[in-house]
Amino acid sequence: MSRAVKVDEVWGKRILDQVEGLAFGTVQITVHDGQIVQIDRTERSRFEVGKWAAGVQRKERSGR
User: What does the domain layout of the chain look like in residue ranges?
Assistant: First the structure.
């Protein structure tokens, strides 16, 4: 039988703190026996392909 997870004000604030300012990424909440025990935040950086590819081409041409 599963237990309902209780999210009180403290855990709600902790979760919101992790989500704030996150442009790309994930927030993972780990629950054991109906209790939140861990919050993991993975932040990703996205780059425009055109700018990245131009940087690679310049390095290849210069022999670096």
Answer: 9-62
CA distance linking residue 31 with residue 23, whole number of Å: 25
Q: How far, in Å, CA of 24 to CA of 46, rounded?
A: 8
- CA 31 to CA 37: how far, in whole Å? 6
Token readout for 18 is 């992790």
Q: What is d(CA 44, CA 27) in angstroms, rounded to the nearest whole number? A: 11
Answer whether 25's CB lies under 8 Å from 44's CB: yes
pLDDT per position as a tens digit, 4-58: 888 899 999 999 999 999 999 999 999 999 899 999 999 999 887 776 566 665 5
Q: For position 6, what pLDDT does the model report? A: 83
Q: Please name which of 20, 24, 17 lies closest in space to residue 43, comparing C-alpha atoms.
A: 24
